[in-house]
Amino acid sequence: MQKTSAVLIATTVAAGFALTAHPPTASAAVATPAPVGYSAYGYGTYVSSSVAALNSGATAYSSVSCTTTSNLTRSNQVASVNLGKVGKVGTDYSQSRSILDSSGRTSQGISQISGVNLLGGLVTATSLKTTTRATYTPAKTSYGSNTTAFVGIKVAGKGFAAGVGPNTRATLSLGGKPFASLVLNEQSRTTVNGLTQAVTTAIHVTVSASNSLGLPIGTNVIVGRSYAALKGTPAGFATGSAYGTQATLSATVKSGPTALAGVACDGGNNTVSIGSSAIPSVLSVGAVKSTTSSVTTPKLTSSATNQITGLKVLGSLIGVQTITASTTTSRTSFTAPVSTTDGSKFVGLKISGVPSITDTVKPNTTINLANLGTVTLHKVTKTSSGITVVMISVVLNRALGTLAKGTLIQIGVSNTGVQNR
User: Fold this and answer.
1) d(Cα 216, Cα 223) in Å, to the nearest integer?
2) What angle do CA 265, 330, 338 make, to 5 degrees?
3) Is pLDDT at 256 greater than 90 in this prediction?
4) pLDDT confidence of residue 34
5) CA–CA distance, 185 with 163 (Å, rounded to integer)
6) How many helices (H) does the chain have, and how many strands (E)?
7) What are phi and psi of 221, to 5 degrees?
8) CA 214 to CA 63: how far, in whole Å?
9) Which of 27, 242, 362, 383 is deepest in the core (most CB within 10 A)?
10) How, if at all, do strands 408-419 and 104-118 pair?
């Protein structure tokens, strides 16, 4: 039987304690765009690795994000979580809040877990809780706080008498061989444009060497994460997404969106791609790639692009070498008008029996195909807050494969917009 051991960069003695991190410090008053938006989340566990079967998305996830609405509370809970080779936890609870009181505006995220048992018992805890807060005061100063409470935290059977300080690091070993790094009470706080963003993680494990547990190098294990931020929203929040194909019938998804990439509401980039996809008996495509981006300054801008290569619908009925669906929406303030652009196009578009349809087909051109249904090319829909482009929109006039008559098929989709709260 292999001996389990850990080498700690901290004093280890008796278990069972609670701790609070260093007190928050206020930043200097700065010119901050108004209004200020809330953003907070919490979740119990998350595992990522190079082996799909080991991956586990965020459990008991809750969030309040991209909103200026105060006094919202969101929560989530699961009775237990089995993480396979990584281990298991008991009750997994999270809460996210947007708070407005005499202190100002506060975003708060909480993660609370019981019965933690990870890596074959190498890391255990009776319970743990992280609380992360970010506050913007009436005096236009900003500060944050990270708080972690452990009960019965042990690493290789040893506990901590004096509490676990922020960012306490350790090297984990199995059979005397180091295989992973461990951070307990992982904390960070940053100030962006005069506003605080903070994140707290109770346990963070990163696998760095081969091991008897069979966890691939690079595996990340996160337990008890909470996040809070306040962000300037001078022109609101970005919205939108891009994806390759989707089929729906009466609002019920029959074939989910492929290569779906969402627009970050308060600034960021996202890219999702797949090698090929198909809706059986209807269509096939080659590579599908979706990219999105958003910025909040100097003006709020949302951008989304989907690109598809090698589309074939019902064999040779409709063929396209490349489809690009691309839109952008922007505005400079809450009261400013919205500006939209459409950079979408076809390359090599051909429809059997309809030679008049070419790459330069006019937006919102609709034709009827006897063996398929109603087809709208480069469908454009504009509203006061954004734009949506669907490069090929089909309503089936008969059942095809698992898709019933009346099913809506969308191919090459980009939508962008802005919202106030």
Assistant:
1) 18
2) 120
3) no
4) 56
5) 10
6) 0, 31
7) -125, 120
8) 33
9) 242
10) unpaired
- Could you report the per-residue pLDDT of 137-161, keeping only the tens digit for each? 999 899 999 999 999 999 999 998 7
Q: Output phi, psi for 302, to 5 deg.
A: -120, 130
What is the bridge-based pairing of β-strands 277-279 and 283-285? antiparallel
The beta strands (E) that lie in 15-122 are given as 36-48, 62-67, 72-78, 81-82, 87-89, 92-101, 104-118
- Phi, psi angles (nearest 5°) of residue 345: -165, 160
pLDDT computed for residue 9 by the predictor: 33
Spell out the domain ranges in the chain.
4-232, 237-419
Structure tokens at 201: 């993680």
CA distance 17 to 112: 15
Displacement of CA 301 from its chain's centroid (Å)? 19
DSSP bridge partners of 130: 111, 148
Cα dist. 248→218, 256, 260, 286, 403 in Å? Answer: 38, 8, 15, 21, 9
Instruction: Give the span between the Cα atoms of 30 and 196, in whole angstroms.
Output: 12
Three-state secondary structure of 229-286: EEEECCCCEEEEEEEEEEEEECCEEEECCCCCEECCCCCEEEEEEECCEEECCCEEEC
**Dist. CA 241–CA 397, nearest whole Å:** 28
- In whole angstroms, what is the distance from residue 380 CA to residue 374 CA? 16
Rounded Cα distance between 249 and 257, Å, is 14
Q: Judge whether residue 28 has pLDDT over 80.
A: no
pTM (predicted TM-score): 0.69
- Angle CA(234)–CA(235)–CA(238) in degrees, nearest 5? 120
DSSP SS3 for 358: coil
Question: Which single residue is written with the structure tokens 């452990």?
Answer: 150
Which of helix, strand or coil describes residue 119?
helix
Nearest-CA neighbor of 99 among 113, 90, 109, 112? Answer: 109
Longest dimension (CA), the chain: 81
pLDDT per residue over 353-410, tens digit each?
Answer: 999 999 999 999 999 999 899 999 999 999 999 999 999 999 999 999 888 999 999 9
pLDDT top residue among 67 and 321:
321
384, 370 in Cβ contact below 8 A?
A: no
Residues 6+ apart with CB under 8 A from 361: 346, 349, 377, 378
Question: pLDDT tens for residues 286-304?
Answer: 999 999 999 988 899 999 9
User: Which two tokens mark 315?
Assistant: 């064999």
**Is the model's pLDDT at 13 over the cut of 60?**
no
How close are the terminal C-alpha atoms of the chain, in Å? 58
12 confidence band (pLDDT: 50, 70, 90): very low
